[in-house]
Specification:
Chain lengths: 309, 282, 341
């Protein structure tokens, strides 16, 4: 006890216990992460904004300020209009398809059956496997000559070899293909999200509804869906953000072709800014993602806030 | 009674039909990877063959070619090095940050945590132009070390969020007991919080690693020399000569690189979901 | 000397005061209970004493030294948490040794002290187990041993019995109290359970809305409550309080008896309408209303069961009841206790 009294009565220097203050140590703990993110996300983001307002290209690094000229340029460009339109089609097409597959997949996986574990593990694969690798597998399945899909259609007698579609070389089919691949990549995530939501619905609520006479569909759409809406919304936000800004699927499958039919914002930004070196126009194209992202972020914040009340 | 049975039979059949549909939808592209990678070229490129199984005897020639004549092993090694380095950087920054936001910064920490997480949503396609300039300013263009520098920009936010949730779900009492028992705040973090959050840390490690394996856009933007490519980029872009795709080799490479990620996801799926939804459903 | 002394301690969370000016002196060796309803600030106050929270203003003195700017580890107090806060990844031995290891006590010394503490609490055979292999009672003993091993200036306990079931709680209560008497350590014990407070405390500080309403021995708290809050918070059923003459009159249910039970001492009579009667085995609780007072206010009387046969006091009947004048308590219009009789 004497030892302790001694510690306590020793004249405490102002800094002796500085690291025992939560606010001080807390700030020290959090600052490396904040700095990293500020330096390599925050600053580049501002740079991107500045690029889009300048005349900067890799051949002319003059940094002249040109105001909104770049945006005016690309808006008048019909190719860009096509790209913008494609991006929305690509995003909403694959999200809707993915959500439908996800919802039904979740319903199927909810019911016990022999081998459910295996099916569940396999169903996760499209989402888990690196997107580039899965996309290459699909590209091979859509191959103009050796497409296994076409082979099956021919073998089943739906089409003849002469009618066999060139999936990635025809405008609408190419768009359909990239949408299918992206929805395929997204649906396991949707399943998992739906499952997480459904299993979080308390069993007693469902029992009460059953006792009150609610049938399967009524239970499903009047109780489960409203209750899992927040979690599904978060999943959807992820899906939208990552699809809207995606580059990999289009880059690997179609290179934006044929003639720009599948060009999306991420791909166009890459083509203009990196491949052609027209950094300022590329940045302007990429920044068109921003409004959509902001809307999504606002939604997200509202959901997060709501769950904390 | 017979009507009931018939209805039941229809129901059962359509249910198992749905199971089969999802089974094929999810698994077929991977089956296709497997079968392609073990087929001889003669078998692959003959449209009169039934493509779903082997018409010639299976072969390891694609794998042999992949390992002996391409940079595949280098790519695997690059991915491993990148993954390890990024994981280390991420843990060193995200662990204290998550702990701080969960325990030490109060309500401001809550807001800051959401802010950090939102940066996870900033897409690579918005940042790759300025970042490629930053990379060349650092003298890292065309080097896999550029990815080591850049990947933490999304793994740190992701892991901070994941670990923050984990720390919040841990009882404070144990750390507080340690503090009263004579530990400094730092001591309580090291001696109590860290050992008790090993499952959370493990989850963070797995997902950091898989996120780095899955990334494609930054790798594509920053790296053009084959010897520095990570495995996904290498397999997807480097096994093409002009217009000729080496499908057997590509599928073999994709298969090898996919397997560890697929296993990791299946093992840690529940934690991942809990992490990103942050307990939206209670 | 006071082992723990607080002066005007205030703690605000976002301008809302949780602790609103508590001054309290706990002498060496005393078992002090902080009693109050949940959310009254008693736990926050305890956490301020040990340093887990920092007060907005006011002073904390431990062993005579101001410790306002000193972190918990250097304050020389030990704390036992609600669910004990045992270190799950340590064995019992290492749990107990931990407070010594952080002080860099030599290893031989540590071993001796762990031996001593585990013997004191009879947990010698548990030393190699992990906390999750222990029963609730064993965990409590380990937590106590860990708290005591470095001989702290004061032992702080935050509702340590609330996780135990009712049966275990009685024996655990006894154990803590006996143990404290044996070791003689200054103890501050937070609870919302008046049975624990009355049974264990040398003195009780009744806390409400961040303020101390009364400090006193259990007898003082029960017999001479300082205000209406203390009067109604302590005691089951609580003290009856009725409005009279611009102030309030209070009397405990067990002092409100049929007139024929009164002895010769001076007493005050009330006519009592019985509404309901509960037989509890060792006593009978009778609910009703008193003539001349608010007819909706429920007045309770606690009668020895042997005295009244069931048929003699029946619902709906009026009976003459009385309270000894010495058992009447008077409160002014603000609820403060006024002059004793």
């Amino acid at each position: 006890m004497a030892a302790i009294a001694e510690t306590a009565s020793k004249p405490a220097s102002r800094f002796q216990f500085i690291l025992d203050r939560r606010d001080v140590l807390g700030a020290i703990f959090v600052s490396p992460a904040i700095l990293y993110v500020l330096l390599l996300v925050g600053v580049p983001f501002l740079m991107a904004v500045y690029y889009s307002l300048s005349a900067y290209t890799i051949y002319d690094p003059s940094w002249d300020f040109v105001g909104l000229d770049n945006f005016a340029d690309i808006l008048q460009d019909p190719t860009f209009q096509q790209t913008l339109y494609n991006t929305f089609i690509f995003t909403f097409g694959s999200q809707i398809l993915g959500l439908i597959l996800g919802k039904f997949g979740a319903l199927v996986l909810l019911r016990p059956f022999p081998g459910r574990k295996l099916v569940r593990a396999l169903v996760i694969l499209p989402w888990a496997v690196p997107v580039a690798l899965a996309t290459v597998a699909w590209q091979w399945m859509f191959d103009s000559l050796y497409s296994v899909i076409n082979w099956t259609l021919i073998a089943l007698g739906f089409i003849t070899r002469e009618q066999a579609p060139n999936w990635l070389g025809t405008e609408h089919l190419a768009m359909l293909s990239v949408i299918i691949v992206n929805a395929w990549r997204f649906f396991p995530f949707a399943i998992v999200i739906f499952l997480a939501g459904i299993t979080a619905v308390p069993q007693d609520v469902l029992d009460a509804a059953t006792v009150d006479g609610a049938g399967f569909w009524r239970r499903n759409y009047q109780i489960i869906v409203p209750m899992i809406l927040p979690i599904v919304a978060i999943g959807l936000i992820f899906g939208i953000v990552f699809t809207f800004t995606d580059l990999s699927v289009v880059f690997l499958m179609t290179m934006g072709g044929p003639v720009g039919a599948t060009s999306v914002l991420g791909f166009a930004g890459f083509q203009t800014g990196i491949t052609s070196g027209d950094v300022s126009h590329g940045a302007a194209i990429s920044l068109f993602m921003l409004p959509v992202l902001l809307v999504v972020v606002v939604f997200m914040l509202r959901f997060i806030r709501r769950r904390e009340i | 009674m017979p009507r009931m049975t018939l209805g039941k039979a229809v129901q059962e059949t359509s249910f198992y039909g749905a199971v089969a549909f999802f089974f094929i939808l999810a698994a077929f592209p991977f089956y296709w990877m497997v079968i392609t990678s073990f087929k001889t070229n003669g078998d692959l490129y003959n449209v009169s063959n039934i493509p779903f199984w082997f018409n010639d005897a299976p072969t390891l020639e694609h794998f042999r070619y992949l390992f002996e004549k391409t940079l595949f092993v280098t790519w695997l090694l690059n991915s491993l090095i990148i993954g390890l380095c990024v994981t280390a950087i991420t843990l060193v920054t995200a662990l204290p940050a998550a702990y701080s936001l969960a325990r030490m910064t109060g309500r401001r920490g809550e807001a800051l945590g959401i802010g950090i997480f939102l940066t996870y949503l900033v897409p690579p396609t918005l940042l790759f132009l300025p970042l490629s300039r930053v990379i060349s300013a650092l003298g890292l263009q065309n080097s896999m070390w550029s990815l080591v520098v850049i990947y933490p920009t999304f793994t740190i936010p992701f892991c901070t969020w994941l670990l923050m949730g984990f720390f919040k779900s841990m009882p404070r009492e144990i750390e507080e007991a340690a503090i009263v028992d004579g530990c400094s705040l730092l001591g309580a973090f090291i001696k109590m919080a860290l050992p008790l959050s090993v499952p959370g840390i493990l989850t963070a490690v797995i997902f950091t690693f898989t996120l780095t394996l899955q990334e494609f856009v930054y790798a594509l933007t920053f790296i053009s020399s084959s010897a520095h490519k990570p495995v996904t980029l290498g397999v997807a872009t480097d096994l093409i000569r002009g217009d000729v795709f080496y499908w057997g080799e590509i599928m073999a490479g994709a298969l090898i690189a996919s397997i560890p990620v697929a296993i990791a996801y299946n093992l840690f799926l529940d934690r991942f979901i809990a992490g990103i939804t942050g307990g939206a459903v209670k | 000397m006071s082992a723990v002394l607080t002066r005007d301690v205030v703690k605000k969370f976002d301008d809302v005061p949780a602790v609103n000016g508590i001054s309290l002196a706990v002498p060496d060796g005393e078992f002090m209970v902080l009693l109050g309803p949940s959310g009254c600030g008693k736990t926050t106050f305890l956490r301020i004493i040990c340093g887990l929270e920092k007060q907005t203003s006011g002073d904390i003195l431990i062993g005579g030294a101001v410790v306002n700017d000193i972190p918990p580890r250097a304050r020389g107090v030990a704390m036992m948490f609600q669910s004990y806060g045992l270190y799950p990844h340590f064995t019992v031995r290492n749990n107990i040794a931990f407070p010594l290891k952080t002080q860099n006590v030599p290893r031989a010394e540590i071993e001796k002290k762990v031996e001593w503490a585990s013997q004191l609490l009879g947990i010698g055979r548990l030393l190699e187990r992990r906390p999750r292999q222990l029963s609730g009672g064993e965990r409590q003993r380990v937590a106590l041993a860990r708290a005591l091993v470095r001989e702290p200036t004061a032992l702080l306990l935050d509702e340590p019995l609330s996780n135990l079931d009712a049966k275990l709680r009685a024996s655990a209560r006894l154990e803590i109290k006996q143990f404290q008497q044996r070791v003689g350590i200054t103890t501050i014990y937070v609870t919302h359970d008046q049975v624990e407070a009355m049974g264990m405390g040398d003195r009780i500080a009744v806390i409400d809305q961040g303020q101390v309403r009364q400090v006193g021995t259990p007898t003082e708290i029960y017999d001479d409550p300082a205000d209406r809050f203390v009067a109604t918070f302590v005691g089951t059923p609580p003290m009856n309080i009725v409005a009279r003459n611009g102030g309030y009159l209070g009397f405990r249910p067990e002092n409100f008896l049929p007139k024929d039970m009164m002895d010769d001492g001076a007493h005050t009579e009330f006519r009592f309408r019985v509404d309901r009667s509960e037989y509890l085995g060792s006593e009978r609780i009778v609910y009703g209303a008193m003539e001349g007072f608010d007819p909706n206010q429920v007045i309770t009387a606690k009668l020895p069961p042997a005295h009244v046969a069931e048929e003699s006091i029946r619902p709906g009947e009026w009976h003459p009841f009385a309270v000894r004048n010495s058992a009447l308590r008077h409160f002014d219009k603000d609820g403060k206790r006024t002059g004793r009789q």
